[in-house]
Amino acid sequence: MSDFASLIIGQPSLDINTDFDGHTIRAVGGAVVYSAFASGALGHRVCALPMANAATVDLAAVFAPAHNVTVIPLDSPASTSIENVYHSADRERRTCRALSRIPGYRTQDIPEADAAIWHLAGLMHGDVGNDLIQYAHTKALVAVDVQALLRWADKKTGEMSFRDWGEKREFLPYIRFLKTDAAEAEVLTGLTDRGAAAKLLHSGGAKEIMITHNTEVLIYDGEEIYTAPIKSRNLSGRTGRGDTCFAVYIAERLSRGIPEALLTAAAAVSLKMETPGPFTGTRADVEEYIRRFYS
């Protein structure tokens, strides 16, 4: 049995989030933060490998409230900072700009950590490369949030845009768990139908596909499409939705079937979305949420 359920490789981000009504919140976010908190909260042992500049991000303080998370910090000349401007109340449409960024992870940066899953959780193109996907495949089950492969930052303006992953045919077969949202799935496949997109991505070699949407979470494993609805009563904690859902799902899948893992992940992210910041509840809270809203 591995020491950790997952090794999460990705940087925190100094986020400046402006809602459609003009209200601005500054917070430390990033997939590594939301993922580690959520997986650890449900009792899974997690190793996080955040990269940041110690002068601008206090990593010890960021992860101090998390449970079951071992942090191995990596220093960087700069920290990642992203400005998000949301254009609608449901936060489905936004404009993103990179204000600063890390140089990216290299295979030689990764310490020896006995984890069942290597979760590659970068924030934009260049954070985690194709070589790291291939290297991770030699160590553990590979989980990839495709955001880090599709989201490019303009070198002059920082403005971010999505481009298809040119090498996907070569590297999808290395991936056990692939996570996209509906918009990213369309960039990858050209398809707006989420089920059809998941099937196409599976045919490319990824073994288990998650596609998140503001109404539901979809999983396809090559045999069946599974879905679970999002039941949040408000969207105040919308930021970090996909990261929370994916991290819980992959950790749960180490010991549970797809329907059970998906239900837990959907309930956990629904509950998380009702409060800003990373998920700090417990497994008992998630189970109670399932009883109240999913039975």
List the helices and strands and how they pair.
Elements (H helix, E strand, L loop, with lengths): L3 E6 L3 E6 L5 E6 L1 H11 L4 E4 L1 E2 L6 H5 L5 E3 L2 E2 L4 E7 L7 E7 L14 E6 L9 H8 L3 E5 L1 H4 E3 L6 E3 L5 H4 L5 E5 H8 L4 H10 L4 E5 L3 E5 L4 E5 L11 H13 L4 H15 L10 H11 L2
Helix pairs in contact: 1-8, 6-7, 8-9, 9-10
Please describe what this structure looks like.
- The chain is an alpha/beta fold and 295 residues long.
- It contains ten helices and 17 strands.
- The protein has a nine-stranded mixed β-sheet with strand order 6-4-1-10-11-14-15-16-17, with helices on both faces. It has a four-stranded mixed β-sheet with strand order 3-2-8-9. Strands 5-7 form a two-stranded parallel ribbon.
- Helix 6 crosses helix 7, helix 8 runs antiparallel to helix 9 (258-272) and helix 9 packs across helix 10 (283-293).
- The longest helix has 15 residues, at 258-272.
Strands in their spatial order, largest beta sheet: 6-4-1-10-11-14-15-16-17
User: Averaged pLDDT, please?
Assistant: 95
Number of domains: 1
Tell me the CATH topology.
Answer: UDP-N-acetylmuramoyl-L-alanine:D-glutamate ligase
**Strand count:** 17
Low-confidence stretches: none
Strand content: 25-35%
Radius of gyration: 17 Å
Main CATH class:
Alpha Beta
CATH superfamily, called what?
Answer: Ribokinase
Q: What's the helix count?
A: 10
User: Which H/E pattern describes the elements?
Assistant: EEEHEEHEEEEEHEHEEHEHHEEEHHH
Structural class: alpha/beta
